[in-house]
Amino acid sequence: MSRVFTFDFFKWFYPGMHIKRWLALIVIGVAIMTFGLGYVVRELYTEGLRLPGFMYWTTLQFIPRYFRGAMFMSGAVGLILFSIWKLNQSIISVVAPHRDTNESLVNTIYTQRFLRRGPKIVAIGGGHGLSTLLRGLKEYTTNLTAIVTVADDGGSSGVLRRELGVLPPGDVRNCIAALADAEPLVTKLFQYRFEDGAGLAGHSFGNLFIVAMSGVTGNMEDAIRQTSRVLAVRGQIIPSTMEDVTLCAHIDDKRTIQGESSIGPAVSNGSKARISEVYLAPENPPAHPEAVRAILEADLIVLGPGSLYTSVLPNLLVQGIRRSLVATPAPKVYVCNVATQPGETDSFSVADHVAAIEDHVGKGVINYVLANDNVTDVIPQAEKAAPVRVITPINNGLRLVTSDVVAEENRYHHDSTKLAEAILRIYDDRDQMAHAVSVPEQDLVTAVDGR
Question: pTM for this one?
Answer without folding.
Answer: 0.78
